[in-house]
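User: For my dataset I need records formatted as: sequence, then structure tokens, nothing else. Please produce one.
Assistant:
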Amino acid sequence: MSHITFLAMPGGTEWIFILLAVVLLFGGKKIPELMKGLGKGVRDFNDAKDSVKNDIEEGMKPKPVAVVEPNLTK
């Protein structure tokens, strides 16, 4: 049962330590640049996901069929 605890999300104290480590590693000036890059990456991912979803939905729509009536007058 102890192996399941490794897969759990970090609690409040762990998040504080993680944030402290990030500030110490990157410094206060680099964090906004990192967050901007992360936000751009998430936005690009969501745009690509929506584009693929729209392409799939467009491909599933029935295409109109042209009906050609024969000319029987001679």
